[in-house]
Amino acid sequence: MNTTPSKNDINPSSARLFWRVLFAVYTFIGVYACLAPVLTLAQHQLAKGQTAFEPFVGAVVLTGIALVIQYVIAKLFRFTGTKYVLSFFPSGLFIVLLTAFTPHVRTAPLAVSALLAIVWIWLIAHSRRQAAGRRSQQGIVSFPAWVYFFVIAFYMGVCSNASDTINYEVKTAKHIMAGDTDKALTVGKNALATSPHLTALRMYAMAKHTAEPGEMLFAYPLPAGGCEVLYFGPADSLDVLLPADSLVKLLGTPRSTKDKTAAQYFARAARRRPHSAARDYHLCGLLLDKDLKTFADELPKYYVVSDSVVLPKYYAQALILYQRQNPEIEPLYADPNVTQNYLDFRKEGNKQREPEAKRTKTWRLYGDTYWWYYYYGK
């Protein structure tokens, strides 16, 4: 592209160096600080778990590749002046496409990428026609360089998959694999982002932790899906980063073809190993399915249910809820403090008439209780 630098342009070599350094810094920080989790997952899936993505080295390598692409494009199309910045778009496209297919195909970023690629090609063709015709370079393609750079940087930032959920999933899995379940259970704890895989990883970490899942599970935001969100099998190993047999080893029971649902699998595993993590998978699964009747029947098989025994927090809340819903049955368990908290929860909800207002108001005060999940959870 033969274009004549404007008289207002600074030294061309200095300008090109400035934009290259700025782009390199922006790309490195973006890859290292924001995209490392999704790139970790992408490499794990592509390499079938045989290799791992190292964030710092990966950021250096990918930034270098992006700069090489930019250099080749700039030389090939002979970008000069303010339009030199347009040579960075293919590099930005390269970074975006690296994350556009993980963990699934993301159609919106691909559509935006295709549209911008068409615009980029049109800008090049338009400028070449202007240069060939020796017409003025003023017009739609003559924006200041910073405008072009801002658009490219904005496109990379918005369309790259810097998902909080994937970030939490990868960090949680890494802590689990390092044997640090304490750290695994702190990842994203105060955030609302959640997913089935993240919940499955947290449940796995809880089951290996000194605290019981019955004390912790409902303190986290939970996705729709009921008991199924706790299960991950060999087919999910490339998504959760853990070895394919991790859950089977934890529960001590392989899943049978007779286990049509995760609930059936957890129930069978709990019967076979009643003092293992399987019992809490079974009981927490029943609570996620909001099957209080079965939960009340099953709980005494695995825990001593007595007024003199302190049950795990969420098991006690579920049992009190079941008994309040069925006053005709003989009470299995009594805890005045838990019962009063439940009554306060119901009273707070009854202050609001609209369902959404009830949901929001009670979440602020009781969002970490089983009662809130039972009445308002998905």
Description:
The chain is about 60% helix and about 0% strand. The protein has 17 helices and no strands. The longest helix is centred in the first third of the chain and has 35 residues, at about 10-45. Mean pLDDT is about 90; it is low at about 1-10 and about 135-140.
Average pLDDT across residues? 89
Figure out the total of helices. Answer: 17
The share of residues in extended strands comes to: under 5%
Structural class: mainly alpha
Stretches where pLDDT is under 50 for at least 5 consecutive residues are 1-10, 136-141
Inertia-based shape: elongated
Short descriptors:
about 375 residues, mainly alpha, about 0% strand, elongated, disordered N terminus
Task: Summarize the helices and strands and which ones pair or pack.
Layout: H1 12-46, H2 55-77, H3 89-99, H4 107-132, H5 145-159, H6 164-177, H7 181-184, H8 196-208, H9 237-240, H10 246-251, H11 262-272, H12 278-288, H13 292-302, H14 313-325, H15 336-350, H16 355-366, H17 370-376
Helix pairs in contact: 1-2, 1-3, 1-6, 2-3, 3-4, 3-5, 6-8, 11-12, 12-13, 13-14, 15-16, 16-17
Give a short overview:
With 378 residues, the chain is mostly helical.
